[in-house]
Amino acid sequence: MECAIGIDLGGTSIKYALVDVNGNCLLKGQLPSMASLSADAVLGQLEKAVIVVKEEAGKQGYNLKGIGVGTPGIVDETNRIVLGGAENIAGWNNIDIATFLENRFSLPVVVGNDANLMGLGETKYGAGRGCTHVVFITVGTGIGGAVIIDGKLFTGYANRGTELGHTPLIANGERCACGAIGCLEHYASTSALVRAFMKRASVEGINFDENVDGRLIVRLYQERNPLAVDCMNGHFYYLGRGIAGFINVFSPQRVVIGGGLSESGPFYLEGVKRVVDENVIKDCACNTEIVIAKLGNWAGVIGAAALVL
Ligand code: BGC
């Protein structure tokens, strides 16, 4: 059977899988990405991931067609080099991931922006299936986006666009990791939610025994903790306004929301939709359905393999 290795590089972990032509993951795993250390450390982890999958593919006798890698940041138009814009990974500028892996494994390598590949995966096999016009956004450490137009991934001229998380949302706001002021990512990512929560907690002199992350904030929100409710409503406000803008621009059939927070329950989608409804132009939104991603954490890996297959 024809298969490819799909890899999704994130700020915290590297997810990898052996994926078949129907988008099924035959083997899945993850490794720490070591993104805070150095580009070399991250490349070393990518290499380890490929070794594991390649060995398994060999044992099972699969016909391995190549390696697809999704990475944060802007990837050059040859789909080989990450140029920059991946602020959550130390030194991740001008890295020729494709040549690095090809030299070690003698398999063709294709590289793409992580969110683009997740959007591709969701459109081919997940929540966007059957649609020709999809906007995908993933909410995590950063915010990434993908736009599918007429059934094809639209990446802007020379592959340098659709950085939806870096839409300037707040005039006179705080500075985003990308250097600009008031980006959607800086206000609506999971990191932004945690930052807002910690700031408020410290002002109010509240301490938490556990590590504060998105999961904890969601749990407290569901327990009606006032601080968590306020911060979560803030999150819905920023994200909803961002999505309303994307609907006004692209008028997609579906907006697919991915990332850990989006999996926290029906309240999440309701919270976002409420704000979208208040801010969107109705005639732009009349064909748009907002849904949660279906492939969960594995959309990026499946999309990366789809690039090869
Ligand atoms: C980066 C994007 C990436 C997104 C999700 C953002 O900070 O700028 O390129 O797609 O994070 O990882």
UniProtKB/TrEMBL annotation:
InterPro entries: ATPase_NBD (IPR043129), ROK (IPR000600), ROK_cs (IPR049874). SUPFAM superfamilies: Actin-like ATPase domain (SSF53067). It holds the Pfam family ROK. This is ROK family protein. Belongs to the ROK (NagC/XylR) family. Transmembrane segments: none annotated.
